[in-house]
């Protein structure tokens, strides 16, 4: 049996399970479509929330970023994990007690304003659309590798599948589908890591291998992290365990990811599916446990991938590279350009580049027949596939690969059994589809419930409301598929980081103040949301699309971290405007105080 056959079997079985669950759990009412009827158990919701959280950025791109960036990639681990703690302590128990179906629903009622609700809908659309772009890109990367097709075709296939089971089942179908997806992801992520840890370090537990010794060599045994540092410095990179980002930028990115996590509408709404506030807290504990399984494994996978990449490819004649390299070449995930004409793959870092290419390399642009052919026909002198913009690189490095391919390439590089590779492929698809479905649901419900039902057309029936939600899902997927094919950033984790910045600058301050400040009024909330998200979007658009240069960054903060500054602007504007405008009505202040009363203390616990 070939690798392709096993891939199709594993993925086909998982798809059959997902679609079967979606059909069986089809939503029959708006309550089931939005909150799964509010009766999901804490354990099941914890697993479903973890699956929703394990996006393509986490499963596919985060370990790849760790492999390439080393210490600097810890910003994702610290930001996303810390943010979830903020979310479970400061947000969801109170929001669940408030008893609304969506985040814009809470904002609309808490700030007694249709305009506030409308602004929240716009913010939700921006956040979810940016986030879902990364998920669609992840789906495209996986399907392109699975079917040997381009990423655009892979994105379209994935979008069709997501629309089927998310649009059909609503939150009820998504919840139980995500339980199955988490099981697939957990096994798909940890089993390859265990195999590789044993081969490289002799440890069964990958995390112990990361801090243990490197034993897969005839050379004297050294600590694994020292091996990584040695590899990096020999190739001209900075030490793997050293930081390259400035302290200010590192702090802002981590803080933006953390606060953005606590403001993500598709994660918050997951806790509306359980029975009561007590179940919210239990569900949060389960979620953290399930998340830890993958988050504590990601650094080990990234480090193992880094060693495997160098050991298998650097200084290897192209004629001797393993077959998997050509497979990744065909789908555009890896590329090699023989810049010095020796027929070997060289992988160098900036320090080697600074030595100067003139004395060692024959120039960055090859001049042999085939180079100027159309991209899908560009073949080098050794039969290698050439990609546009990779051969023209002015530095001497000859190897190119995307961060997002490292997790999928890792078991190939380690020579793992075919069934392990097939399981990993199924897990990659599950990760991208699970989060895409959750985001799609939030988008559709924000439009159908908060925009159509609450603002534009209050007399909508339940059936009409669900139909609007399904139509909104279709429209959102078309836009998301376009940006999945033409992403705003080179790799998934960075695109997703923009979504967290938007959430940090818009929802996080507004929700936090709305929960804990009785004095905050609608004028302050609206002004804060608009100013925070406008500043953040403007900064991202300028530097990502309008040609802004790195030397123009505000205090050296990259677009990934600017959401933290946008958040501070939101807080400042909200309190300033609120101080000069009338206080909220007394019934709103009483409502805010009511959600702080512990369960069992009176009428407030009835929600």
Layout: helices, strands, pairs:
Blueprint: H1 3-24, H2 30-35, H3 42-53, H4 56-69, H5 74-98, H6 103-110, H7 114-147, H8 151-201, H9 206-210, E1 213-214, E2 222-223, H10 224-235, H11 247-261, H12 265-268, H13 277-295, H14 298-313, E3 316-317, H15 323-330, E4 334-336, E5 344-345, H16 350-353, E6 399-401, H17 406-413, H18 418-456, H19 462-485, H20 492-516, H21 522-545, H22 562-579, H23 586-594
Antiparallel strand pairs: 1-2, 3-5, 4-6
Kindly describe this structure.
By secondary structure, the chain is mainly alpha-helical. It folds into two domains: 3-53 and 69-218 and 248-271 and 296-306 and 417-606, Sodium/glucose cotransporter; 334-401, no CATH class. It has 23 helices and six strands. It has helices at 3-24, 30-35, 42-53, 56-69, 74-98, 103-110, 114-147, 151-201, 206-210, 224-235, 247-261, 265-268, 277-295, 298-313, 323-330, 350-353, 406-413, 418-456, 462-485, 492-516, 522-545, 562-579, 586-594, and strands spanning 213-214, 222-223, 316-317, 334-336, 344-345, 399-401. A hairpin with a 7-residue loop joins strand 1 and strand 2. Helix 7 packs antiparallel against helix 18, helix 11 crosses helix 22 and helix 18 (418-456) packs across helix 19 (462-485). It is globular and about 75 Å long.
At a glance:
The chain is an all-alpha fold.
Radius of gyration: 25 Å
What overall form do the CA principal axes indicate? Answer: globular
CATH topology of the largest domain: Sodium/glucose cotransporter
CATH class of the largest domain: Mainly Alpha
Which band does the percent of strand residues land in? under 5%
What's the N-to-C terminus distance?
Answer: 55 Å
Question: Which sequence of SSEs, written as H and E, runs from N to C?
Answer: HHHHHHHHHEEHHHHHEHEEHEHHHHHHH
Adjacency order of strands in the biggest sheet: 1-2
Please give the oligomerization state of what you see.
Answer: single chain
Helix vs. strand class: mainly alpha
Number of helices: 23
CATH level-four homologous superfamily name of the largest domain: Sodium/glucose cotransporter
CATH architecture of the largest domain: Up-down Bundle
- Largest sheet geometry: 2 strands, antiparallel
How much helix, percentage-wise, in residues? 55-70%
Q: Count every beta strand, where a strand is a DSSP E run of 2 or more residues.
A: 6
In round numbers, the mean pLDDT is 79
Runs with pLDDT <50, length 5+?
A: 354-373, 389-393, 600-607
- State the domain count: 2
